[in-house]
Amino acid sequence: MKIRHNKKRNTAFVFESLVKEITVAIMKEDKERKEKAVSLVRKHFKPGSILHRHLQCYRSLYENQDMNKQTCEKILKEAKQAIRLLDSEGLFDSQTNLIKDVNKELEPRVFSNFVPNYKSLATIDQIFSGKLSPKNIVILESQIVDDMSKPINSEKNTESIDNLVITSFVNKFNNKYENNLMENQKTLLNYYISSFADNGLGLKMFLNEEISRLKTQMTIASEISEIKSDKEMIDKTQKVFEKLDQFKSETIGNGVVLTILKTQQLEREIFENGD
Known about the structure:
2 domains; elongated; mainly alpha; single chain
């Protein structure tokens, strides 16, 4: 079944392409390009905007898995209803402005970025278009429901973009610091990458707990005999503690994340090797 698909007007595809652009810019340490892409996401996909609501309809179908088919069918029905309630002219204008801004602030190449779940996004876009024959609608909706109801560990389950980019980011960090990342470091990086899509809510929640935990660990470390008897070590430990304490009033960026990563590494070295 061949159906034409305009990916520039596929809201979810453009969003995922921008997220991919952000992560590549982070890996290349291209701060200017990262900021431009982040600015576009915040401008066009801010909560309450028509593109944000449109994106949520896509996400309700391509981010849900391992559910029974009846539930998936209900979600599909509600997503289609939500699409019908959107202002079609307003949506078209918002997509047009987004396309113009991507071309102007970044470049048309962004629309050629590889998005792992592109096929699913294209299928969902066709379902939302309202331009299909009854037969094609039934066929495509069955495909989406099948995908949503697959077990999460299914071999055919498409790896999410977050998993792909975190692998590259982890490799970059490993090559730079010659260490294998610990689980808490992987978690931090994963939250950092996805923070551009959810305004950093998940990252902030994680950092609130992680910074508090690390401050406690640095306090405990200062009481270890080898450190306590060394003035230079005590001073450095105190500086780390003070730096962590400052983060509660700072904007979360590359520097903050890198410092937390290094502190997590320091914690491991103190408590695994300090004894």
